[in-house]
Automatic annotation (TrEMBL):
InterPro entries given in the database record: Universal_stress_UspA, UspA
Species of provenance: Novosphingobium panipatense
Pfam families, sorted: Usp
Residue intervals of the UspA domain: 23-134
Protein family per UniProt: Belongs to the universal stress protein A family.
Name the UniProt record assigns to this protein: Nucleotide-binding universal stress protein, UspA family
Amino acid sequence: MLRSARPIIRNHDAVMSKNISIKDVLAVVDGTPASLTGVDQAVAYAGLYDATLAIVVVTENLAWAAAVDPMAYAEAMEASEAQRKEHVAAVRERVAGAPVHVEVHALFEAPGLLPGLAKAEGQYADIVLVPGTGGWQSDGLRRHITEALMFAGVPTMVMPAAWRPAPITHAALGWNASLEAFRAARTVLDLVEPGATVDVVVVDSLDGDKSGQPAPGTRIARHITRHGHNALVHAIASAEHGTSAALQLFAFESRADVLVIGGYGRSRALEFILGGVTRELIAHQRLPIVFVH
């Protein structure tokens, strides 16, 4: 039997957002005790926008691995089904009395099918929330589901356990002028509060103004400013940290509420081989990170 403390984040303690872009929030969790902080965060985040919250509880059906042995298959199915019911019950108990409308349902399939099913769920949300490192029983499944959701075209926020949702008044935007970065910039406009500060962060493009063209990041900062925000361009070097660490360190030390980046500008296969920025940020979070593909 799962037992856990009552939610540590209460929605009515937060200031209501003035942003009206968020109406459907999806959270994907596995229902284990480690994921319940993510459930609290999702309730609080949806409450900021008076949005509807759907929570999908994913449970791996391990019975397929014992399919060659009818007796072992039946036992594995029974155990997996019991785990599914326990995880869903834990999440439903956690959201009891939530100040927003919450729907909870389960995805119960072979591990290889769960990311694709989660991707389909994400197509009907304004944003998807996923607990970050340490918030899942299987970190490999967490990563696969996060990637799948990203490729659904929905902004996907990975939440560190210490994060307390609040209106976003300061965002950092990772910028490299790629198609994914342009989409990330548009997502920033949907996520932040009116008059927010937006740091446009350019990594390792310190000499981009020598050609007589505007310095990297200048034009997107101008566009964001025309939407009523205070946009500033910051050119930083990755140095020994690498691009992902440099981006996250800048956002964290600047006290940004969130880091928004365009995810997977190259193919996933190439990113896997080269150790891409997206994969590294999915693996480690110091603040909430929103991935946009």
